[in-house]
Task: structure prediction
Amino acid sequence: MTSENAFPRRRFLAGIAAGVAAFNARPGFAASLLVTPRQNEGPFYPVTLPLDRDNDLVSVAGRSGAAKGDIVHLFGRVLDESGRPVSGARVEIWQCDVYGHYHHVGQVDERDDPDFQGYGATAVGADGAYRFRTIKPVPYTGRTPHIHFAITGRGIERLTTQLYLKGHPGNERDFLYNSLGDAKRRDSVSVAFAPAPRIAPDAVAGTFDIILGANTLRG
Result:
């Protein structure tokens, strides 16, 4: 199997390097960044990890189709409070498919999208950067659209959090989103997806930086 950091078997890679550079460019950081808040892992972390668990969730090994839904590119970096990259971090994501179903939770639903991986993982680069290709999250009963994240690695106490769609009307009614309290904490996990022509003419992308606090970084 190829490296987790590459999108194996994918033909869309032309132009991706320019897109990565564009979305990972950042202005100067403040002296101390807002730590990404912890959130409940929830009941849908995979019971059994899929055989295909790279950072491209919209194409599954052995299948010729593409995931249903709006395809998005997700970029970000794992940093400490001072804006320094956290090398050696591993980023996992999992989310429901376009029908609102989670995969790999110990049950098979014939309504699942078989072309959606549902779970992915990647190691960050030396600059703390990661990237995924996935679908724009959708709501399901009781929850606003979201993507689950877990950050692990040597010297890192596992951080679990969630990414939300910035400005989505369902956020106002979502109990976990509102449990974050003040607007700054909510904004820190809210992402706006926008056209990203530097990646591809029809590409859509968003950026989600994850800030690990001193209590999460054990040394």
